[in-house]
């Protein structure tokens, strides 16, 4: 099952993102579930959120993955949405 994680940063949280980015990227790279990942950008081209696509057995596994993300532990996100996704093109 593919699950898209759409996470939006709290306003003014770019320093929190930058400080925790190495741990977050290491977490992404260590996970076999991560299929695609990258930052969402604001109008100024600054990082303002995350889009991550996981390949997991169920929604609970995706929720568990989110709970382990260093960005979440740092309190970076204003909102996190998990959406089951059906890939039609690519991959």
Placed side by side, the strands forming the largest sheet appear as 2-3-1-4
- Report the radius of gyration as a whole number of Å: 13 Å
Low-confidence runs: none
Indicate the CATH architecture: 2-Layer Sandwich
Beta-strand residue percentage: 35-45%
H/E topology pattern: EHEEHHE
Supply the CATH superfamily name: Dimeric alpha+beta barrel
Domain tally: 1
CATH topology tier name: Alpha-Beta Plaits
> What shape does the CA trace take?
globular
User: Termini distance?
Assistant: 13 Å
CATH class descriptor name? Alpha Beta
General description of the model:
By secondary structure, the protein is of the alpha+beta class. The protein has one domain (2-85): Alpha-Beta Plaits, CATH 3.30.70. Helices cover 34% and strands 37% of the residues. The protein is built from three helices and four strands.
